[in-house]
Design brief:
It is built from 8 helices and 12 strands. The chain is an alpha+beta fold.
């Protein structure tokens, strides 16, 4: 019999991590390991996409207002300042709470960009998703919307694109007319979307004397929702001290009723009588801010009454995101 030749295996080409392309989760990994992509080099990418970032707006100017515009305010806009300046042909970039047809972004006919904030996103990092949408909007053809997609796991975040020293000054609107420079020339679809959005918008006003506090009007009573940057446990202790001392209200007939959790921040909420307007709580809110600063500075153990007050406030927390 002829002698069998020894079997030899060809060496697989060595591919560095930076050269490995993205393939389907169930396909063989291009690195040559023999494992499926999702169990090999796709594992880190999948983890990066699904890992929840609790404070996606941390480090941005006006973090508290970003949270408010994302979760609480129906109609508002804010100009954005890019680190590298505006690209040629883009006269302005504006953040908007909502865009017509729920578009993630829109490149207007004049080249300006509107970036929608209140949209569903595909990963656990809202900042990365919005940055991906913004980058694609800057490159889109004028007059076209930008659709959502799964952002690359290694893509930039808003913190990488926006100027950390740029001002962030939200402007609250009574409706969504800012969608179209010329309402008479809007398409029937956009006009219908505008009418529906305006009908559902809750009247909202941003207070001028304190940061990130928003008054809103509802049929039964009005509310003040105040996004605060303080660590949650420290803030709840401070609110409990004031609540137990009877100093947590914003005037006669008002009441601190609980708080929201949203994007890593706490949002205390007050019920206000229906006759109390935004201008009526400007002074009480400023005075409360002074009382809160004193309570935040205290490190004394909570008294029994304060602990009970804290338990009540904790039980009336609602997580929005």
């Amino acid at each position: 019999m002829a002698k069998k030749r020894p079997q030899t295996k060809a060496k697989r080409p060595q591919i560095t991590d930076g050269e490995i392309p993205v393939v389907g989760a169930r396909e063989p990994c291009p690195c040559g390991s023999g494992r499926r992509y999702k169990a090999c080099h796709g594992r880190a990418a999948a983890h990066a996409v699904t890992e929840l970032v609790h404070r996606p707006f941390e480090g941005l100017p006006g973090e508290c207002d970003w949270v408010a515009l994302r979760e609480l305010v129906p109609a508002a806009t804010a100009g954005l300042t890019l680190k590298d300046g505006l690209p040629e042909g883009v006269p302005a970039v504006t953040l908007a709470t909502v865009l017509p047809m729920a578009w993630p972004a829109l490149r207007r006919d004049d080249g300006s960009v509107l970036l929608g904030l209140q949209n569903d996103t595909s990963s656990g990092d809202l900042s990365r998703d919005l940055a991906d949408i913004l980058q694609r909007a800057l490159e889109a053809e004028p007059g076209t919307p930008v659709q959502g997609r799964r952002a690359p796991a290694d893509g930039p975040r808003l913190q990488d694109l926006l100027d950390p020293k740029g001002a962030f000054e939200p402007e609250v609107h009574s409706g969504f007319e800012f969608w179209v420079p010329d309402p008479a020339g809007a398409t029937p679809e956009v006009t219908a979307s505008l009418e529906r959005a305006n009908a559902a918008a809750i009247p909202t006003v941003k207070l001028q004397g304190v940061d990130a506090a928003y008054w809103c009007e509802t049929p039964e009573k009005n509310h003040l929702r105040w996004v605060m940057p303080h660590p949650e446990e420290q803030l709840l202790d401070a609110l409990a001290r004031l609540h137990a001392a009877g100093r947590s209200s914003l005037g006669e007939g008002t009441r601190l009723v609980g708080s929201f959790r949203a994007h890593g921040l706490t949002v205390p909420v007050w019920d206000l009588p229906s006759g109390v307007k935004a201008e009526d709580v400007e002074k009480p809110a400023a005075e409360f801010a002074e009382r809160l600063a004193t309570a935040l500075a205290s490190d004394a153990p909570l008294t029994p009454d304060e602990r009970r007050a804290r338990g009540g406030l904790t039980n009336r927390q609602v997580t929005l995101s």
